[in-house]
Each structure stands twice: as structure tokens, then as C-alpha cells.
Design a protein that fits this description.
By secondary structure, the chain is mainly alpha-helical. Helix content is 68%, strand content 1%.
Length: 447
């Protein structure tokens, strides 16, 4: 293991030294920073404990209401879409200059994002199948599978946002920041219809309006709209003021993620409050760009960023599987460490030890499954457009259904919703790849 880690660092260092001087390293840094914030946030918020001999799925934000304010820092999905807008804008613009096509461009993105998901689906499907067959309580199987597969919802939304880049980028080129404000107006309208007038189901449209708005800010960043603190800080102040008013005077909860028992979630689906948070985070992050880029001139720090970016999807997808593994071991050993009340002083004092255990459990998973992410693909322009679109729809439908209802089923012989599991695999086959087709490659910089 130690030799493998040294080899990974050496390859990442070689990649870091090859980075062209004009590359905006801060994009990669924000991506790495965000993924680590997500991992820490998930490990902290999930607060399982033992009660009457069974594991209960405690949630820190429900147990300690003051901790809901922490989500203003740990809910960093807006930064992912900001970085995605920057990278997608640069990539699509370069593709257009080279007279490249949409199928090859988007196909390569689907390949890179979905290939690491398929092994995760396969492992958890097998766990659900054999766990059910072995007589493990279906509630336990469902809880473990749903917790471990929480991260896949993001990919469904991000793939859809990436799919329409040619159109959103064209809107940016024609209307500039007005295209951003157009999506903001759409988010305002959706929340008004949903919250004020109670129109059922319409709030899900904000998966598009909110994240497309933040994605447009990524285009703006790529074209110099946030080139100095003087240009970025007003966005931070404006976003903070809007967020404060929406939470303080409006109907929006403090927590920027869902809290058990709350009538309104700011994230599922996203609301205007989460969009305001995204604007605030954009302003703060980009006002720090100049000193951060100077800091990233140091080779060791830059190498660390390159290393994380080379396995970023693997870290994101498997960190909750590691969490579940540690939890299962604790349960099997009589509930070791799970009899402490979540949120108590003893619980906080034990967090460093639990985090160390999560990291130990994560490392072999990352070492084993990072190969599915480290695949070079320039896309296949021979894939028919209809297959790419149909494959995308099936993949996103499968990922969304997994997040919404889980792959585990309380009914049936298998204990698995096989139709949910099948959709991403069939979609991947239509697009033209699968985890069995991977080629090993050195860690690459995402983007």
C-alpha cells in the first residue's frame, strides 16, 4: 500500500510539472477543496447511534439545530457547478475552434463521469442481492444502500447541465450576464409558484434554473468577469444580503441541505436561497483567486491538487461506502462507539478517531476503483446522436431513481429494484462503454 501511494504521488508530481503555465490552477484547487468539504460534511452530518440493540440513523442537523448554520460552508455544490461552467465553457469553445462535434465532445464527458459509477452500482447491487438472500433485514440493506449511493444524484443533474452546454454557452456569448439573470428570474418564478401558490411538482424545475444560473457564472469567470476582488466582492456581498433576507424574512430554512422533519428543503430540489448561497460563494471564492494562484505555484501543494483531481470522482462516490463499512464493523463488535449520544461532548471528542477510521476504510477503495476514472477518452464521433441522448436519459433516470427511492426494494424475491440498476448500465452500453473496457492511465487533471 505504501509503495502504491508513493507511486501515485510520483505520477501526480510528473503531471503537475507538465501543467502549462497559462493553466488556471485555481479551478482544480476549487474542485479538490469542494470534494473534501463534501466528504467531511457527509461524515460529520451522519450521526448513527445504538438504541434498543439496533442502529438508528441520526442526523446532526436535526439533533443540534445550531449546526444547520454550518451548511453555509459545507454545502459547496454551487462551487462544483461554477467550476463546471468554467471548464465546460473553455472546452466547448476549444472544440468549436477545432471544428469538433457535439457527439464526441459530450460523449467523452459522459464516459468520464459515468464510468466510475458503474462499479459502485455493481458492488451495491451484489450486496443487496446476497444480503437479502442471506436473511439480512431488508430495512438494514435498504438503509445501507441508500446511504452509500447518496452521491449519485449530483451526477444526474450535472450530466443534464453539461448536455445543454452548446445552447447555454450560445446564450452567454449573445447576452452575457443577462443570460444568468434570465435563469435567476426562472428560479424566482418557480419558487413563487411552488411555495406561495402550492403548484405541485413545479419546484423540480429549479434543478435546471438554479444550477444553470450558477453554471453561467462559470462562463463569466472564464471570460474575465471576476478578474479582480473589486469585481468579485460585490457578488459576495449581494449574495450574502439576499441569503440573509430569504432566510430571515422569507420561508426558507437555515440549512442548505435537507433536514429530517423540515417541511422545505433548500437542496432537494434547490431553491432561491441555495442560489443566493451560490452567488455568495462565487464572490468569496473568486475574490481570493489571485493569492490562491500564487500559492499554487508551490510544487507540493499543486501536486496534491493534481493527485486529488485524478481520483476525485472515486473519492466522491466511495466515501460513504467507507462510512457504511466502518459502521457495520462497529455494529458487529457490539456497537463499539455507537452508544454515545450524537452531539454530546463525548461524541465531538470522538470525531477525530472516527474520521481516521473513515479515511483508513476509504484508501483501499480509492486505490482499487480509481482505475475506472483514470481512462483517457476523446469521445467517439461515430456514435449516433440518438444513442447518446437515449443513453443519457437512461443513465440520468437510473441515477435519479437511485437517489429518490434506492436500489433496494422492500418487496420481491431479490430485494433489488433491478430496473433501477439496469438503466445506467443500458445507458452506458448505448453510449458505447462500460467498466470492462477501461484502459489504465496516469492520474489526469479533471476539466
Amino acid at each position: 500500500m505504501e509503495q502504491a501511494k508513493r507511486g501515485l504521488w510520483a505520477r501526480a508530481e510528473a503531471m503537475a510539472m507538465q501543467a502549462p503555465p497559462e493553466r488556471n490552477r485555481y479551478v482544480d484547487f476549487l474542485r479538490a477543496f469542494s470534494i473534501l468539504a463534501v466528504v467531511i460534511g457527509h461524515w460529520l452530518v451522519a450521526a448513527p447511534y445504538m438504541k434498543d440493540g439496533a442502529v438508528q440513523g441520526g442526523h446532526l442537523l436535526g439533533i443540534l439545530p445550531w449546526s444547520q448554520w454550518l451548511t453555509w460552508g459545507f454545502q459547496v455544490m454551487p462551487l462544483f457547478f461554477l467550476v463546471g461552467g468554467f471548464s465546460n465553457g473553455m472546452s466547448w469553445s476549444a472544440t468549436q475552434r477545432k471544428s469538433g462535434g457535439y457527439v464526441a465532445w459530450f460523449g467523452s464527458r459522459v464516459h468520464r463521469l459515468v464510468n466510475p459509477v458503474l462499479p459502485l452500482f455493481l458492488i451495491w447491487t451484489l450486496f443487496a442481492l446476497f444480503g437479502t438472500a442471506a436473511g439480512v433485514e431488508r430495512r438494514v440493506v435498504a438503509l445501507a444502500a441508500q446511504l452509500a449511493l447518496i452521491p449519485v444524484w449530483f451526477l444526474s443533474v450535472y450530466l443534464m447541465v453539461s448536455a445543454v452546454v452548446p445552447w447555454t454557452y450560445a446564450l452567454w456569448r449573445r447576452f452575457g450576464l443577462a443570460s444568468f439573470w434570465g435563469f435567476v428570474a426562472g428560479a424566482v418564478l418557480i419558487d413563487l409558484l411552488s411555495i406561495r401558490y402550492g403548484v405541485p411538482g413545479i419546484n423540480f424545475a429549479n434543478f435546471a434554473f438554479v444550477w444553470l444560473a450558477v453554471h453561467q457564472l462559470g462562463y463569466a469567470w472564464g471570460e474575465g468577469q471576476f478578474a479582480s476582488p473589486a469585481k468579485a466582492l460585490p457578488w459576495a456581498v449581494g449574495g450574502a444580503l439576499a441569503l440573509g433576507l430569504l432566510v430571515g424574512l422569507g420561508p426558507y430554512p437555515v440549512a442548505m441541505i435537507g433536514v429530517p422533519g423540515s417541511e422545505l428543503s433548500n437542496s432537494m430540489p434547490p431553491t432561491l436561497a441555495l442560489l443566493a448561497l451560490g452567488i455568495m460563494q462565487t464572490g468569496i471564492a473568486l475574490s481570493l483567486q489571485a493569492p490562491a494562484r500564487r500559492m499554487l505555484d508551490h510544487l507540493k501543494l499543486w501536486t496534491g491538487v493534481v493527485l486529488i483531481n485524478g481520483m476525485i470522482m472515486t473519492i466522491y462516490l466511495w466515501h460513504l461506502t467507507a462510512f457504511v463499512a466502518v459502521l457495520v464493523i462497529a455494529w458487529l463488535t457490539g456497537g463499539t462507539g455507537l452508544h454515545v449520544a450524537p452531539g454530546s461532548g463525548a461524541w465531538w471528542a470522538a470525531r477525530p478517531l472516527w474520521f481516521a477510521l473513515y479515511i483508513v476504510a476509504s484508501l483501499p477503495l480509492i486505490m482499487l476503483f480509481a482505475r475506472y476514472e483514470q481512462v483517457r477518452s476523446s469521445g467517439d464521433s461515430s456514435t449516433p446522436l440518438w444513442r447518446l441522448i437515449l443513453g443519457l436519459i437512461l443513465i440520468c433516470a437510473g441515477l435519479a431513481a437511485t437517489a429518490a427511492i434506492s436500489i433496494a426494494s422492500p418487496l420481491g424475491v431479490t430485494g433489488v429494484r433491478l430496473w433501477v440498476v439496469a438503466m445506467p448500465f443500458i445507458g452506458a452500453a448505448l453510449v458505447g462503454f462500460g467498466p470492462w473496457m477501461e484502459r489504465k492511465a496516469p492520474p489526469k487533471q479533471a476539466g
